[in-house]
Amino acid sequence: MSINRRLYTDPDFQEALDRQIKLRVFRDDHMIENGGTLVRFDDNTVVIQSSVSDLAYYTRSECEFFELRKR
Questions:
Q1: Rounded distance, CA 32 to CA 10, Å?
Q2: What's the DSSP call for residue 44?
Q3: Which pTM does this prediction carry?
Q4: Are 41 and 47 in contact (CB under 8 A)?
Q5: Helices in 1-71 by DSSP H: which ranges?
Q6: Torsions phi, psi of 52, nearest 5?
Q7: Which helix (H) or strand (E) holds 31?
Q8: Is the predicted pLDDT of residue 2 greater than 90, yes or no?
């Protein structure tokens, strides 16, 4: 069973970056990214890498970000 924890604050995102936690991204109640790791973030943008050459840029205000932990 997995646990989802929403990332709200900069310290939440920093922890996900430091620990290379897998993320899920939702926009308009639809999952648009699953299993990528956080590469970079700022006040407006979150960058997630899914594979070696696949980087995705998401607007922080339009998306919801969740940490995916396995029990």
A1: 21
A2: S
A3: 0.87
A4: yes
A5: 10-19
A6: -55, -40
A7: strand 30-41
A8: no
